[in-house]
Design brief:
Radius of gyration: 22 Å
Keywords: Signal
Pfam families: DUF6488
Structural class: alpha+beta
Number of strands: 4
Shape: elongated
Signal peptide: 1-21
Helix content: 25-40%
Distance between the termini: 61 Å
Oligomer: single chain
Order of helices and strands: HHEEEE
Strand content: 15-25%
Number of helices: 2
Strand order of the largest sheet: 1-2-3-4
């Protein structure tokens, strides 16, 4: 009986570790909306520092983040001072754990 119990414990230990193995799992902690807004604002400031956006973007407050169908955070920044209407809204894409993916003016 002890041998059977020991074998079952070994079998359970081996299968329990392999069930969670594999690629494609994001084990990072997901951020709150407040944390996402802070991260996105920091990324906008970084883009401004690199000279890719006008300084006026640093004063723009982000809108509430939304989760898209690819399980990414999308944060929009609306800048009414931007003369080009097609570039008044900047969309920032972040992973659920807050890592920068991309930014564009199309939202796609």
């Amino acid at each position: 009986m002890q041998k059977i119990a020991f074998c079952l414990m070994i079998l359970f230990a081996l299968t329990a570790t392999t069930v969670h193995a594999g690629a494609g799992h994001d084990h990072a902690v997901e951020l709150t909306q407040t944390q996402v807004l802070e991260k996105a604002s920091g990324f906008v400031a970084s883009i401004v520092e690199k000279g890719k956006l006008d300084d006026s973007w640093t004063e723009i407050k982000p809108q509430d983040p939304k989760e898209n169908s690819r399980h990414e955070w999308v944060v929009a920044f609306f800048n009414p001072a931007e003369k080009d209407n097609d570039k008044q809204t900047l969309y920032m894409f972040l992973t659920m754990s807050g890592e920068y993916i991309a930014a564009n003016f199309t939202g796609k």
